[in-house]
Amino acid sequence: MNTSNKILTGFLIVIFLVPVFILLSFNSKIRNGQFTVVKNEQSKGANFRNGNFKPYKVVKLVSPPGRALKCNLQYADSLYYSYNINNSQDSIRVYNLGDTLFIQYIRRKEQKDNTDVYADNELYVEVKLPSVEQLVVNNAEAIISDMNASVTKNMLVEVYGTGMLNVGAMEGDDNDQTGKTPYAIERLSFKSANGEVSFGKNVHIGQLMIQADGTSTINIEEGAAIDDIQGSLSDSCAVKASWKYVKRLAVLNKN
């Protein structure tokens, strides 16, 4: 073998061995704790938060007065939530306690005066879950535009304080529901103390059992269908609906 071939062979051996020595060196440092291996997942930004939760029977949304927490409940086979904190100091806590799934707005900054500071700190949470049969809304806003293709047989909802429930597609929604299967509920029991409920244009409810106290508000958009309405409304309740529903709700007024 001539000199030039020896030089070339030596050069190729060096090129091959250098990465091997570097890899062995890194492995040694990792074993000694000098480097930490970190799983690299798809980044969605520093403000993105997500997680899972356990099976539940009741979903409870808890927020300070003012509807700072807005929760979009969406049908899925998984139990998953996600949200962006939007550079806010406030956050969301999602946890199971007994048979109840809590989605709670956590306010980090104390209110120094009587001014309303919640509007600047609204947090929108998307919750993926297979069903919502019992829901409690305390000063938050819950949105249920659809749950699954079949009819929801029974739903029990309680709304308190400044809380609000939106059921079905609302007027002005970007996703037009025209021609799509209505969001159908066989029996909805709704209880409210000063809260608000809105039934969207694609909702079909077989029986609505309603107990509205204080300054509760009932909104029924054009296109919504409610076959049977029973229950009671306080004198202070407000109803925003077509004349046919105003008449039906008026007879439920407490004297």
Description:
This protein is mostly beta strands and 255 residues long. It has helices at residues 3-31, 243-250; strands spanning 48-52, 58-62, 69-75, 80-84, 91-97, 100-106, 123-129, 134-138, 141-144, 152-160, 164-167, 183-193, 196-199, 203-213, 217-220, 225-233, 238-240. It has two helices and 17 strands. The strands form two sheets. Strands 1-4-7-3-9-11-13-15-17 form a nine-stranded mixed β-sheet, with helices on one face. An eight-stranded mixed β-sheet has the order 5-6-2-8-10-12-14-16, covered by helices on one side. Strand 5 (91-97) and strand 6 form a beta hairpin. Mean pLDDT is 82; it is low at 33-43 and 116-120.
Concise description?
This protein is mainly β. The chain is built from 2 helices and 17 strands. A 9-stranded mixed sheet has the order 1-4-7-3-9-11-13-15-17, with helices on one face. Strands 5-6-2-8-10-12-14-16 form an 8-stranded mixed sheet, with helices on one face.
Write the element-wise H/E pattern from the N-terminal end onward: HEEEEEEEEEEEEEEEEEH
Helix/strand structural class? mainly beta
Main sheet overview: 9 strands, mixed
Distance between the termini: 112 Å
Uncertain residue ranges: 33-43, 116-120
Number of helices: 2
Strand content: 35-45%
Radius of gyration: 28 Å
Shape: elongated
| Number of DSSP E strands | 17
Highlighted features:
255 residues; mainly beta; eight-stranded mixed β-sheet; 2 helices; 17 strands; elongated
Topology summary:
Layout: H1 3-31, E1 48-52, E2 58-62, E3 69-75, E4 80-84, E5 91-97, E6 100-106, E7 123-129, E8 134-138, E9 141-144, E10 152-160, E11 164-167, E12 183-193, E13 196-199, E14 203-213, E15 217-220, E16 225-233, E17 238-240, H2 243-250
Parallel strand pairs: 2-6, 2-8, 3-7, 3-9, 8-10, 9-11, 10-12, 11-13, 12-14, 13-15, 14-16, 15-17
Antiparallel strand pairs: 1-4, 4-7, 5-6
